Amino acid sequence: MEKKLGVYLNMFLSYLGILAIPILAGGVIYWLALGVTKSQTDKMNDNLLTMVQRELDYKVEEVIKVTNSVAMNSKVEELASVKGELSPENRLMMYYLYQDLSKNNLSEKFVDDIFVYFNRLRAVCSIKGNMSIEMYYDLYCDNSEYRIQEFEKYLDAPHFWDTLNLVRCNGENKLIFTMSDINSVMGGPRNFTAGVSMNLTALKKTMESMLWDKRMFLLIINSKNQVIAQTGEVPEKLSLDYDSLPAGNYVDRKLLDEPYSTFVRESENLEWKYVMLIPQSIIEKNARDIQKYAMVGLFACIFMGSAFSYYMTKKNYNPIRSLLEIFMGQGGRKPSKGENEYQWLRQQSEQFFKEHTDTRLLLADSQKSLRLYTLLKVLEYPYDMEHMKETLENYNIKVGLGFNAVIIFDVGQRKADADRELAGEYALRRFILKNIFEELVLDYFHIETVEIGERLAAVVGLPADGKEYQEKLIELVETLMQMTEDKFEFAVTALVGDIHEGLEGIHLSYMEACEIGEYVELLNTDLIVYCDVKNVQKKYRYSIDTEQRIINAIKTGHADVAKEAIGGAFDENIIDGISIDVCRCLIYDMMGTLLKGADEGGYHNFSSEFNFSKDLSARLPVGELKRRFGKLVDQICDKIESLQREEENDNKLSKKVQAYIQENYQDPDLNISMVGQSFGMTPAYLSTIYKKQTQESLLDYINKFRLAEAERLLREDHSVVEVAQMVGFRDSGSFIRVFKKKMGFTPGQLKKKN
Amino acid sequence: MKRSKKLVSLMLAAATASMALAGCGSKTADTTATTAGGGAATEAQTEAGTKEAAAEFSYPMASGDKLTYWCELTSTVAANYANLGDTPFAKEWAKDTGVDVEYQHPPVGQTKQQFGLIMADGNLPDMMEYSWTADYPGGPEKAIKDGVIISLNDVFQKYCPNILKYLEENPDIDKMIKTDEGHYYVFPFIRGDEKLCNTIGLMLREDWLKELNMDVPTTIDEWHDVLTAFKEKKGATAPYTFEYTNPQYLDSNPFLFAFNSSRGFYLGDDGKAHFGAVEEGYKQYLTTMAQWYKEGLIDPDLASMGSDQVAAKMTNGQSGASMGQAGSRMGTWISAAVKTTPEYMLKAAPSPSLEKGARPEFGWIELPFSGRASVAITTSCKDVERAARLLDFAYGEAGHMMFNFGVEGESYTMENGYPTYTDLIMKNPDGLPVSQSMAAWFRGCYNGPLVQDVRYLEQYYTMDSQKETPEVWGAHNGKKHIMLPVTPTSDESKEFSTIMNEINTYRDEMTLKFIFGTESLDNFDTYVTNIKNMNLEEALDIENAALDRYNSR
Question: Which residues belong to any copy of the HTH araC/xylS-type domain (chain A) (predicted)?
């Protein structure tokens, strides 16, 4: 649990570390956003106001143009000069003026009328028609602020680009631009006033559509500080002074209670100023909204992140923990405190898999060993298939069914020089042999190989018995032998067993191969095939009687008898025509017989003194072989004769020495030196010759004789001391010591027994 | 028709592979006639096919592309809605037909300019409601040839069983809505009853007449007396006034009709077209008017009179007689004036005659098909069937009710088989005038592609003096003389309009001068000569040729 807390803490801390980045980024984004929002809003508002200004200026310009053209119209001047009643001609002219005005074709919805007021006539000529001022007022200019008289008075007064803001009784708001005739402005008599009435309601609608927040507002004031038009909820206490309103955009804190972003533009045509006021708080609110969302977002991040990381931790840690538990449950090293669990787990897993691999290798090894063991067993003992079938299948041994032959290979071991250093070389040779042979054979037959001691046994599975398979097999073996000879420069001996059926057949074949191993030396060849040898044996006759007869003849020195017997043996085998193999066998057997005879005759050095391979070979003719064997027999018999003579001389000396000892045994001075002096020989030479003839040391014989005499005397009731003196011991002590050493008990003990 | 043509073409193509395509076309007709055993049989076959197809079809249609519909937004709708599509009428129409329509409106008073712009631009709405008959330069046949609108003959046959049925039943109207070449080109606005054609006429202060103990004047002389009495006894400064600036009123001027004349073309007893403004009757009319103007019986400011001023003068006692529609003028004035003058009442006066008791030979009557507010399908329309079925709906039974009365249960209920407007229309809870509440729910109260139902008018007129207007104003033989909606050929039309523009301008200018007295009527002959010099004869020839073609439709 403590461990787990640590993990969580680590995770939480790293999580907090990561979280610091969005928090910092959030802050930076907020400040940037505030700046961007402010500048963007300013730019937008500025553009907005510029748009309003351009639009209105354009319209005003149009109005001015129209009004000018009206003021310049000759019909206006003419009509203005009419006094009293209008004549039909005047009326017609007024109609034409009406048509002229209509032709101005101000389709703009902002301009709803163009008119001319004739002071003297108290008549109005307008796009709407020609009528009296009263009707014009009633129909188009009725309002509660200016009564008809005041309205007329206003129109009567001189104007130069004046504006009159009227709110009609039906709620329509119109702005009337007025321009009196030039003469009146210059101080002359006032005759007419031209006017254009602009639909402020429509204008306001346009202006309103431009506002993007309820709290902002837009107004137009003229140089008389009159508000021409305004939209939005303008606070009542707001009072603007035309002259003290600089153009541009800035933040004004004095106009109202709170700071306002103020945008002021001047009209290009009139002494008007377009003013837009936006509470700073709106702009900041936008930025604050961003801040708010950013903060909410951040906290959401924190909580979501925590929850998510907790969930992920649980989800990811639990599997690790369960793995940990598995490993810890298996014993072994527990993770030490503070150790990274993951690292520990990694180590454990690596170890686990290493062990696993090792075990598998070991298993494979023992599997292989068992397999070889099984093969060995099959070779060594006869098994029937039913017994072994499962085992063979287990070890994937393919031979056993059908027919099999066993071949035994031997790599130079016959020279019997089991040099330690060569052992490695031989193992390599066997390996090479095994691989080459398996490769050669596998193209035709199944094969299993197994090493038996220094030899390599190959079991070859054949589909059937038959000459052709045998030949093929031998051909393969020869190929192999040729290859090893040529490529690897070592000689191989191959013993090929016969083909036999079934599992037991393997054993049989193996035994045959083993059996013919002996012929390698005899036949002086590397490849021995059982069936060849078997064929030879059928005709090979060399009975034990013959052999014994030859041995006895040699032992007794009857060389002629021996020669006759040898000749008889050769002749017997030659009757059917001798084969080289049989000859080899006979030579071999004959040499064995000669060796045995020589040995029994006492001629032990014969084998070392005589070089068989030099003088005897199967390739020699039989007659020559008989002659050479006869010569050998002569040599052996001569040698045995001389040896027997020498032996007889030697035996006479030992008998004389023994007789001398039996006579003088009571003399305490009798020793080897005394015996030597009396025979005229050095004590050492005498002692050697004596031991050679009797296989016993002279000293031992002296002691033995004395003690035997002493025993006899002791039984005859002589005392120990007496006996000691009688058999030639100088004191009884040494007699007792020597007696006990030889007999195992003291002379006293012997006397008591009796 | 098309199918059989195709079939025959195929047969021919198989028979004579080397035949030229043009020859094929001309021979097709012959072969059709011979092989099918007469055109009538083919016709009948096709008709049967159409009826069969119609039986399979039913509204509403499966939803599809939105169609665009260009039309003027009439002032009674514009007062409350920025777009016709916002009205309950348009919503119901879309619901019943299954066709979504996007309405496009030209700015008020700029219909012709806007139309010109659209033509120049070439990007046409699917349907356009316009005075194709009179206002397309060169006439409707030209519009088809110009590739602006499509000929509807095939469309009617294929998709419009309702309008086909109506036209079958009303051959005179069928004649009106075709071009001389026999092409249908619009879904027309048709006034479904003669009463609906008698909507403009004279009216005067009934309360004054009573006070002065005078009868409703029926002759020019009686009118002179009444107006003089109004001037002298009632202090009227402009006893007779009317919207002189509105050409419709100039065309329907009853005082002129009294002299058996007209300011433009009329159908003479000889069945030919005549130009009234150069005839003796016109001179007599001018003489009378000049006299009246001089005597102060006519508004001195008459020439520039608009509806505002007329309304003001009619309600404030400056005038005692005027002319106009029973609804938008008479009714409006009465309702406005009774607030200040409770006894105020207007009465319709019949078209005057020269001799008492004589039924006037001339008089104002509108044609059932004026060509106004009729809808053509443009060549830009991709789904003609949808547009055609949308428009044909109004000429069927259900569509007729919807277009004239709105939605049953909401804007009207059936009482004894009579569709009666509900209070939603007649006493609108939001305080809308009847004209506006009607315009929101149906089009029958103004115009559009429909057959107007007289039962609308019967309910629209609420006052007794309004209700008698169709009878009073229709008491004349004007129907005989009203110029039929003829169409000059596109070649003639340019020349015709050039001539007539010049003549009309001169006529209007001179007429005012004659009335105002600034030009002596002694110069009338000079005036006539001038007009004739402006190639009036040629214009008359064109008009008469067109009339001949019309008659032979």
Answer: 655-753
